[in-house]
Amino acid sequence: MKQEPLKIPQATTKRLPLYYRFIQNFSNAGKKRVSSQELSEAMKIDSATIRRDFSHFGALGKKGYGYDVQHLLAFFRQTLDQDEETNVALIGVGSLGTAFLKYNFHKNHNTRIVVAFDTSATEDGMMLSDIPVFEPSKLEEKIQEYGIELVILTVPSRAAQEVTDRLMTTSVKGILNFTPVRLTVPDSIRVHTIDLSVELQTLIYFIKQDEETFTHNS
After folding, report:
1. 6 three-class SS
2. Which one of 9-18, 20-29, 180-189, 199-208 scores highest in mean pLDDT?
3. What are the Cα distances from residue 148, in Å, to 100, 128, 141, 151, 174?
4. Which residues form the DNA-binding region (predicted)?
5. Are 86 and 54 in contact (CB under 8 A)?
6. Neighbours of 39 (CB within 10 A)
7. Could you tell me the end-to-end alpha-carbon distance of the chain, in angstroms, rounded to an integer?
8. Domains annotated on the chain, with CATH
9. What is the mean pLDDT of residues 119-125?
10. Using an 8 Å Cβ cutoff, are 134 and 149 in contact?
């Protein structure tokens, strides 16, 4: 009988890469075991939240002992498919896109940008930060050629849905959307939107709330 996949809360899922990163740090520092309190202090996440997150995956630690660092490292590597590299395409090489190309992700993660698209590209393509950049007209062709399933979208807002419509005809399964546009996609494609202006406004709101709370309690 096929085992049902674990139903993990979305908030927990978003923290998994962070756990993996900090556990790597503990491993690199030579730590053999770590407590939820030590993770809490390093990550600035409540220890009860960490224990609750870990509980979704069964017994990852032992009471009075904590967590074995190498066991956690192997667990999260497998859970996050860190041993399998994922090729990513970048669409839109403006200021933000250029920053992505210069950073690239494979230095610290299992993902790497292998191809990019921009209207500024020459007919035969060009190289930026050792990444080939092609005209948008070659989008479908190159996505197939490079076996792309994940895309970072940093195009102007007016072009976002049009580009997404073209991606629907390809093998792409996920879009990391850095435009403010709420993209319309089929259920077969997952979209994560990061709207920087909304994030900034949210941060400003919380800062003001903190200031009001501090003033009220003073």
Report:
1. coil
2. 180-189
3. 17, 19, 11, 7, 10
4. 18-57
5. no
6. 22
7. 61
8. 10-78 (1.10.10.10), 86-197 (3.40.50.720)
9. 91
10. no
C-alpha distances in Å from residue 74, one per residue of 46, 70, 79, 202 = 23, 6, 9, 36
The answer to whether 93 is a known ligand-binding residue is yes
User: In angstroms, rounded to a whole number, what is the distance separating the alpha carbons of residues 88 and 152?
Assistant: 7
Q: Which two tokens stand for residue 121?
A: 């590209």
Q: Residue 38 and residue 119: Cα distance in Å, rounded?
A: 48
What are the φ/ψ torsions at residue 14 (nearest 5 degrees)?
-65, -25
pLDDT band at 108 (very low <50, low <70, confident <90, very high): low
Q: Is 95 annotated as a binding residue?
A: yes
The answer to whether 96 is annotated as binding is yes
User: Cα 87 to chain center, whole Å?
Assistant: 13
| 147 known member of a binding site | no
Has 125 been labeled as part of a binding site?
no
Q: How far apart are CA 2 and CA 41, in angstroms?
A: 39
What tens digit of pLDDT does each residue of 24-60 get? Answer: 899 999 999 898 889 999 998 998 898 888 888 876 7
Residue 55 pLDDT: 86
pTM over 0.85: no
**Residue 16 buriedness (CB in 10 A; 0-12 / 13-18 / 19+):** middle
Report the C-alpha gap between 96 and 92 in whole angstroms.
Answer: 8
